[in-house]
Design goal:
alpha+beta; four-stranded mixed β-sheet; 27% strand
Length: 124
């Protein structure tokens, strides 16, 4: 795989209510897809190169790839987690949690985002 293709940072801590943005600074199509578990690529030859022959992508990657494929020339990162070179994906998590993100094409590209309850919120 291409180790220079990575999410940077690959670990992030934010407060509930904060947004984050992932920008594709490379020259290839990538995704920044929230997944329950890290999984294989949506591209079978990539899985073959990673010795994951016949592996099936997780449901989140399959759905995101299907949404992207509906209109790839006019990709809208608001409707799919796939981002063309130069595009950005923005999210504002709705609850405290630890969220996993991966590129569904290049599955070694992974990030863990921890959303913490706002320390100024005294209601809980």
């Amino acid at each position: 795989h291409a180790p220079q293709w990575r999410f940077s940072p690959d670990r992030l801590h934010i407060e509930l209510g904060d947004s984050f943005q992932a920008t594709n600074r490379g020259g290839e199509l990538h995704s920044f897809t929230e997944v329950k578990h890290f999984g294989p690529s949506v591209v079978p030859p990539v899985n073959d190169l990673l010795h994951m022959h016949g592996a099936q992508p997780n449901a989140e990657c399959s759905a995101g790839f299907a949404a992207f494929n509906r209109d790839p020339a006019h990709n809208n990162p608001e409707l799919t987690s796939f981002v063309l070179p130069g595009q950005s994906f923005t999210d504002t998590p709705a609850a405290p949690a630890t969220e996993l993100y991966q590129c569904c094409i290049h599955p070694w590209m992974q990030a863990v985002i921890t959303i913490r309850q706002d320390k100024d919120d005294r209601t809980n």
